[in-house]
Write a structure and sequence with these properties.
- 50% of the residues lie in helices and 6% in strands.
- The chain is mostly helical.
- The protein folds into 2 domains: 44 residues, no CATH class; 112 residues, no CATH class.
- It has a two-stranded antiparallel ribbon.
- It is extended and about 70 Å long.
Length: 193
C-alpha cells in the first residue's frame, strides 16, 4: 500500500489535497452543473475518474441518513454491541421496505414526482401508526395469505394499493420565503421601542 495512504490511517495531518471537479451533463436538483470533490488520495494511486465515481456511493449515504432520521437505527442507550447491531439490522430491513414502497409508488405515480416531492418522514409516520392499529384490529391468521402470494402476484397487489394512495398526504412541506421584518418606528422623543 502507498506510504501516503498508510500515514492517513495513522492520524497524521494532511499536507496536500487535490480538487477534482465533476462536470455534469444534467444539473442536480439544486441546479448545480459541477460538483467539486476534495480528496487526500494521491493522484498516482487513485485517478480523477475513480474519485468522481465516488458520487455513486451517495445513494448509500442517503440511505443511512434516512435510516438515522426515520428508523432510530442508532439508539445511544444500547450498550451491548449485539443489541446495537440487531437494532441497526432491523433499521436496514425497514429501509428496504420503505424503498420497495417508494419504487412501487414511483411506478404508479411517476418516479420523478416521488423522488422530488415524497416525504419519507410522513410516509414512515403513517406506516408506524397504521401498523400498530392493524396489529390490534386484524387477527394474525389473515396475514398468512400474503405469504402465499408469488412475487408477481405480490407486485401486482402493491401496484394496486399504490394507485389508491393519496399522495397529497405525504408531500414534503416546502418552506416559504422569510418575510422581511418591517423597519422599527422610533419616536425621537421616546427612544424606547
Amino acid at each position: 500500500m502507498n506510504k501516503q495512504l498508510v500515514s492517513l490511517y495513522r492520524g497524521e495531518s494532511l499536507k496536500k489535497v487535490r480538487r477534482v471537479v465533476l462536470h455534469l451533463h444534467k444539473p442536480t436538483r439544486d441546479n448545480e452543473s459541477e460538483i467539486p470533490i476534495l480528496t487526500s488520495l494521491p493522484s498516482d494511486v487513485i485517478g480523477a475518474v475513480k474519485v468522481a465515481q465516488y458520487r455513486k456511493r451517495w445513494n448509500i449515504e442517503t440511505m443511512f441518513q434516512v435510516i438515522e432520521k426515520n428508523f432510530a437505527g442508532e439508539i445511544p442507550s444500547l450498550g451491548y454491541p449485539q443489541a446495537a447491531l440487531f437494532c441497526f439490522s432491523l433499521a436496514l430491513v425497514a429501509y428496504n421496505i420503505l424503498a420497495v414502497i417508494g419504487r412501487t409508488l414511483g411506478s404508479v405515480h411517476g418516479v420523478g414526482k416521488i423522488e422530488t416531492s415524497l416525504s419519507e418522514f410522513y410516509l414512515v409516520a403513517e406506516i408506524q401508526g397504521t401498523y400498530q392499529g392493524m396489529m390490534i384490529a386484524i387477527d394474525p391468521v389473515y396475514w398468512r395469505s400474503f405469504g402465499l402470494l408469488s412475487l408477481p402476484q405480490f407486485a401486482l397487489l402493491l401496484a394496486d394499493l399504490a394507485r389508491r394512495v393519496n399522495l397529497k398526504s405525504f408531500l414534503k412541506q416546502s418552506r416559504s420565503p422569510k418575510k422581511k421584518k418591517p423597519d422599527l418606528l422610533v419616536d425621537p422623543q421616546h427612544r424606547h421601542v
